[in-house]
Amino acid sequence: TLATYAVVTAVLAVFSIGLYLVCRRYSGVEIAAEALLALFFALIGLIGLVWLVMLVFRNYAILKNITTGIYYERYVDDPPPDWVERPARTFNNLMQVPTLFLFACVIMLLTDYADRAQLILAWIFVVIRYLHAVIYMVWNYVPARFGCFVISSITLIVIYTRLILEWI
């Protein structure tokens, strides 16, 4: 509904102000770039966990005759129930925007560029992606999922903008 998306928009506006304040307060506060490794591995851990859930759900569905392996050969006819495929769609999502985050981490590690603001932004991104994955697999409430997607995307844009501005 319109009211739901008005709330999501208000949350995004407040979040954007929060990002600005984080950048303003913590820009230039030096940290070791290696501090980003925990975030890198936290996101890799999420990807691995979602992959494992996908594997278990799909195999369970086949073993219990909820679906057949034939569906997975061509992905047509008799799709499995939504709960079986949500982990797969979540895994697919984690192969998209989060890979850009992992690339940003590699750039920051290789160039030894990281400050406290980048670290906080990176933690925000990872936490929101965990939240997005849980919402998608468990609840699948689209406004909440959309909000998490937009918040993580805005955060990633800020991370890349700060990286680019560092080298201009």
Automatic annotation (TrEMBL):
Its main location: membrane. It comes from the Bacteria. Gene3D superfamilies: Membrane associated eicosanoid/glutathione metabolism-like domain. InterPro entries: MAPEG-like_dom_sf (IPR023352), Membr-assoc_MAPEG (IPR001129). The keyword Amino-acid biosynthesis does not apply. Pfam families: MAPEG. The chain crosses the membrane at residues 6-23, 35-57, 94-113, 120-138, 144-165. It is found in: Membrane. This is MAPEG family protein.
